[in-house]
Design brief:
7 strands, 18% strand, Alpha-Beta Plaits, 279 residues
């Protein structure tokens, strides 16, 4: 297929808007090669099961430009599904990971499947299966940069490895349209605004963190993860509710009208580089 680049200064049609969801396993590279194969095979099954439980089996069956990186997975879908990708999908993903953990422990006591999740939305080319131009755009790049950013990595480091199995970061656009727009039961107080930085990629953007099952890491675990840093174990995690206050909700909203922005946020994003990422 011959690709003809557009001439500079010419008008071009805007690609369709696509929601993008990406996941990546914590400490994947620290596991054995055999365990990496197990996790690599398990990740898409975990996503599919959580989507099915959320009434989103069609999202998995009709997913756009899916990519499996071994330690992670990314796919696109129609933006109307964004509220449901936040709730109930994220809570169901936490539950599914809890259910597979005993089988992982039988294989290796130290093996835990904890996932970082990022969600963004924007115009992305979508020409059909196999087209090399599919998903080339800022929304795909920023989804991976959010996934690799320090705040969401830090969130897993500072939470209990046996309790908190999912940490989520969404873009400012997703937060404004879906959360502030009132389309999800996971309200604004459950989200923590952060500056999502990936220093070696020159990326900095506003992001919003959410943890379906909050917890506090044991002091020894945090000290091991962050040598030389003192940690106050009694400090709250992001002002989130305690472990006993897990929020479970499911909301169906068929209003597809325009979302009115309810809050003005300051900040900007600088994008660059490719969309590759590591565990």
């Amino acid at each position: 297929m011959e690709l003809i680049p557009p001439r500079y200064g010419t008008v071009a049609p805007l690609p369709p808007y696509r929601a993008v969801l990406a996941v990546d396993m914590e400490k994947f590279s620290a596991t054995s090669s055999l365990n990496q194969q197990t996790i690599g095979n398990l990740i898409p099954h975990v996503l599919e099961l959580a989507l099915n439980r959320s009434g989103l089996s069609h999202v998995w069956e009709e997913r756009r430009f899916p990519r499996h990186g071994g330690d992670g997975y990314v796919f696109g879908t129609d933006p109307e599904h964004l509220p449901f990708l936040i709730s109930p999908f994220l809570e169901n993903l936490q539950q599914v990971l809890q259910e597979v953990q005993p089988d992982l422990a039988v294989r290796d006591r130290a093996l835990r499947m904890r996932l970082r999740v990022s969600i963004d939305v924007g115009p992305l080319p979508d020409h059909g299966d196999g087209n090399p131009m599919n998903a080339m755009g800022e929304a795909m790049i920023s989804t991976h940069r959010l996934l690799d950013s320090e705040p969401v990595r830090e969130e897993l480091r500072r939470t209990d490895a046996d309790t908190t199995l999912v940490a989520v970061i969404v873009s400012r656009r997703v937060y404004e349209d879906v959360v502030l727009g009132g389309f999800t039961p996971v309200k604004a107080p459950r989200w923590q605004p952060v500056q999502a930085n990936v220093a070696d990629k020159g990326f900095q953007a506003e992001g919003y963190l959410f943890v379906p099952t909050p917890s506090r890491a044991r002091e020894a675990e945090v000290a091991q993860a962050e040598p030389g840093q003192e940690v106050e174990a009694s400090a709250p995690v992001n002002g989130a509710p305690g472990v006993g206050e897990t929020h479970i909700g499911y909301s169906v909203n068929t209003n597809h009208g325009q979302v009115v922005q309810a809050e003005t946020l300051n900040g900007g994003a600088v994008f660059g580089g490719g969309a590759s990422h590591g565990g």
